[in-house]
Amino acid sequence: MVVSYKPLTDKLFQQFSALVFQHAGIFLKPEKKELLNARIGKRLRQCQIASFQEYYDYVLNDKSGEELIHLIDAVSTNFTSFYREKTHFDFLAASVLREFAARGMPGEFSVWSAACSSGEEPYTLSIVLNEFAVREPKFRFAIHATDISTKVLAIAQRGVYALDKVQTVPPELLRRYFQRGRGKSEGYVKVKKELSRPISFRRFNLMDSYPWRAELDVIFCRNVMIYFNRETQQQLVDKFYNSLKPGGYLFIGHSESLTAINHRFNQVTTTGYKK
Question: Domain check: are 130 and 257 in the same one?
Answer without folding.
Answer: yes
